Amino acid sequence: MPPIGKIVHRIIILGSGPAGLTAAIYAARAGLAPLVIEGDAPGGQLMITSEVENFPGFPEGIAGPELIARMRAQAEKFGAEFLPGAISACDLAAHPFALTLGQMTLFAESVIIATGARARYPDIPSVTRLIGQGVSACATCDGFFFRNKRVFVVGGGDSALEEAIFLTRFASSVTVVHRRDEFRASRIMQDKARANEKLQFLMSHTLAEALGGERLTGVALRDLKNGSEQSYEADGLFFAMGHDPNTDIFRDYLVRDEAGYLTREAGRAGCAIPGVFIAGDVADTLYRQAATAAGDGCRAALEAERFLQGL
């Protein structure tokens, strides 16, 4: 039990990307006065997405940060409150749940975990600087913007080849860069990729630099066999190196898969702990889209509302 006199929030939402904000909208409209802990990267990956054209309701497209700002304003309109920062500890073994934010301990009857996942990028300053300006980690999200453009994809697994094949629908040429002599991808995926006339392959190569000022204009690649470097013109640079879900803080309480993603009940937002709900990329190893995250947030808020009614 929390100390006498301490406020127990009906619902606390961890994360302020599409999943967390959609959950906040639904919870606020239900009169639950949700408290949203924004996280280390408020707004999530949409904050580094220059243009979103596949989110329903925006036929002309909308900048990622603007979409997040609108979703947040909608949640605030209905009474959601926001706190900056990310929790540093939690206790999900007792009810109400305890969450540590800075020097504060917050208590909640229900929690929605929408802490998201981080795309892996190489530790190269020029790459970091150009994320959203020709550099991306989501072909499904951004491929459309590279129609008739020259694109490079870094990676060697199934996801890398799958994204490269997807990009050939738009790009004039797609070059896959892999540091090894052979792909890690399945044989069937390799055969499919090599049969695609738009795909080229640079094996035993690695990215040295992303080139360009305000926007990507090329890539510098290093040949790992002889150490030489060569520059290539490029309009797009995609990374398919996997994602890291933000779940370490929950490892003592919740079930995670081998990659660290949270698991939930089939077809539900709930998990093994009553009152804890999961939404968005923190549990999504397949789609990782703003629209699917928003749908997850809706489902989590509705299930949380039913849980609270049961109390």
Largest sheet descriptor: 5 strands, parallel
Assign a percent range to the helix content.
10-25%
> Mean pLDDT, nearest integer?
94
Helix/strand/pairing category: alpha/beta
Strand content: 25-35%
The residue ranges in which pLDDT falls below 50 over 5 or more consecutive positions are none
Query: What is the number of E strands?
Result: 19
Amino-to-carboxy terminus distance: 15 Å
Encode the helix/strand succession as letters: EEHEHEEEEEEHEHEHEHEEEEEEEH
Q: What order do the strands of the largest sheet run in, or round the barrel if closed? A: 4-3-2-8-19
Q: What is the 3D shape? A: elongated
Q: What count of helical segments does DSSP give? A: 7
CA gyration radius, whole angstroms: 21 Å
Kindly list the characteristics that best describe this protein.
single chain; 311 residues; alpha/beta; five-stranded parallel β-sheet; 7 helices; elongated
Which helices and strands appear, and what pairs or packs with what?
Blueprint: E1 8-9, E2 12-14, H1 18-29, E3 35-37, H2 64-77, E4 81-83, E5 89-91, E6 97-101, E7 104-108, E8 111-113, E9 117-119, H3 125-129, E10 135-136, H4 139-142, E11 150-154, H5 158-167, E12 173-178, H6 187-194, E13 199-203, E14 205-212, E15 216-223, E16 229-233, E17 236-239, E18 243-245, E19 276-278, H7 290-310
Parallel strand pairs: 1-7, 2-3, 2-8, 3-4, 8-19, 10-17, 11-12, 11-17, 12-13
Antiparallel strand pairs: 5-6, 6-7, 9-18, 14-15, 15-16
